[in-house]
Amino acid sequence: MTEEGAGPCRRGRRRAERIIDGRTNCSCFFPQCGPDAGEPVILRPEEIEALRLVDLLGMQQEEAAEAMGVSRKTLWRDLHEARRKVAGAIVNGRAILMEECGRTGERRCRFGECGPRFRSE
């Protein structure tokens, strides 16, 4: 069963809105060698933004959380999940696909409501 307004595939609380400022120029990464290792790893927009702010721009988690408009705990969860997915993809030779935010032209992303979409190349 799903909760009213929670979307077709989510249970529990609605995902908090995040401010997503960064955009990537590509939508996927694939291993260059080795056999197909199974299902690709899918990164959400908020996970990519958390990686960008903390690991690429060197922000402290508190600063990054403020920039995304979420609590530090929510940012930590997004960052931890993104790092786990990227590490798993590298170690296991899996592709990485990036979901695109369903709200084009806006800074806020409520990705959980609209289901996964991928950028077309």
Task: Report, as a whole number of angstroms, the end-to-end distance.
Answer: 36 Å
Number of helices: 3
Mean pLDDT: 76
> CATH first level: which class?
Mainly Alpha
Number of DSSP strand runs: 5
Shape descriptor reads globular
Q: What would you call the structural class?
A: alpha+beta
Flag low-confidence runs. 1-7, 105-121
Going by CATH, the homologous superfamily would be: Winged helix-like DNA-binding domain superfamily/Winged helix DNA-binding domain
Widest sheet: strand ordering: 2-4-3
**What Rg, in angstroms, do the CA atoms define?**
15 Å
In the CATH scheme, what's the topology name? Arc Repressor Mutant, subunit A
Indicate the percent of residues in helices. 25-40%
Main beta sheet strand tally, sense and closure: 3 strands, mixed
Number of domains: 1
Strand portion: 5-15%
Proper CATH architecture? Orthogonal Bundle
- Helix/strand order: EEEHHHEE
Furnish the topology, listing elements before pairings.
Blueprint (H helix, E strand, L loop, with lengths): L17 E2 L8 E2 L11 E3 L1 H12 L4 H8 L3 H21 L3 E3 L9 E2 L12
Parallel strand pairs: 3-4
Antiparallel strand pairs: 1-5, 2-4
Helix pairs in contact: 1-2, 1-3, 2-3
